[in-house]
Amino acid sequence: MKQQQKIKVALADDHVLLRNGLASVVDGFGEYVVLFQADNGKHFQQQIRAYGEPDIVLMDINMPEMDGYQTAQWLKEHYPLVMVIALSMYDSENAIIKMFKAGAKGYILKDSEPAELKRSLDSVRQKGFYYSELVTGRLIHTINKLGEANAPKKELNSLNDREIEFLRYACTEMTYKEIADKMFLSPRTIDGYRDALFEKLELKTRVGLVMYAIKNGIVTV
Description:
Pfam families: GerE, Response_reg. By secondary structure, this protein is α/β, with parallel strands linked by helices. About 55% of the residues lie in helices and about 15% in strands.
């Protein structure tokens, strides 16, 4: 495969040894090439102006000066065609939700095997998303259904005002208890809303609720 045909990948991570190791792995995949590396979001902005637009960015969440959330949001506004895969040491539900809202197309853990990294790159390139084991196969199927023209309208019409209000709060970093306080309801009632939506929308996780809300325009990203 010729150099110009390779998929261009940028790396943003403040841990130099990890980043260099990641670069070696990515370059070793053959069809991918590392375009540039950056220490943080501000450095990333400089690098993209110097080296041009990558196809995919492997983005660490926790970086000094300008973190992964801010950098992904900046990319979405200035380079909307660049696809971001978030990198994290933790499978935090709030971190996943926040990165999805910032525009990330995938989320993998830093201790993932090279084979999973390859799957994430391939999936984002071919399908436009990668959710790994953090989101179930059932959710991926539902997300695909939501891309069909008629599915969202039918499902959205089945939700009442309070369920939609709950969905909006679920897309924030509030805990379920904090959502209960905000809606002047008991935690048990909020659990009931959540479980009812899981069943109604055929989802299993809060991340799934967020993806549904984003796809249907209940929240904007």
